[in-house]
Write a structure and sequence with these properties.
2 helices; 36% strand; alpha+beta; 30% helix
């Protein structure tokens, strides 16, 4: 599986989710997008985004103020 990284550090809601949506549209089903963000609101935003779009939130973690999300693009 291929994976890509989106650096959304320093961006505030809703920009990390909007940029992730755009990146995921260009990816093939099954690929994983890793998103790095510093906005604490991104935790709830990405959970809701995945719940409503059908993408799979594979991993969510935080280290030193940077949040990491791994999102797998669902098959159509």
């Amino acid at each position: 599986m291929d994976s890509k990284t989106l650096d959304a550090t320093g961006l505030l809601c809703p920009l990390p989710v909007l940029k992730a949506r755009k990146a995921l549209k260009a990816m093939a089903p099954g690929e994983v997008l890793e998103v790095l963000a510093t906005d604490p609101g991104a935790v709830k935003d990405f959970a809701a985004f995945c719940r409503t779009t059908g993408y799979l939130l594979v991993e969510s973690s935080e280290e030193a103020g940077t949040f990491r999300f791994a999102i797998r693009k669902a098959a159509p």
